[in-house]
Amino acid sequence: MFRQVFEATNTLRDALASRVEAVFGLTTLHAALVSFRASPIPPSCSEETKASSYAFGLIALAKFELRLPAEVLEEELPRLKHTLVAALTDASSLVVREAAAAAIIAAQVVLRDDAHLFALLDGLADDKKNLLTYLFDKHGVRGMTGSGSVDRLEREMRRLDGRTGTPIRATPARSSS
Description:
The protein is mostly helical. Helices cover 73% and strands 0% of the residues. The protein is built from eight helices and no strands. The longest helix is centred in the first third of the chain and has 20 residues, at 47-66. The two termini are 30 Å apart.
């Protein structure tokens, strides 16, 4: 049952990311992610679940980025910068850092210029730039890009989807006395 809900949620997210106008979707989702990240963890939710939900949203952000023309993404990245850099440096969650990296890789796929991307994400620490440069090479998105690089990024996002879909632990039933 859980697997079906998980797959349906991913399908819905991906359908929205492919059908909603890209700039509207990106800006609306970004505002929702900022609000979500700033909100306290609900009592019924764990820190891990909130982090996974945030990573799920960052993956959706990447999917919207892939649909934008480079000149539009150049205008949007300064608004996304704080969210992406904060998520990439989030010490509490590996899946959030990986999802942020995927969103930045998606931006690189569109821009095709890592020096320009790093300029748009100014303030990014050198160690993070080095990590991203390594990931750009690994995904084949430095310089020239083609369908192979997008395919590798899609596989990475599917892998992350598997990490964000951890089943919620059932709460023990109370005994009736």
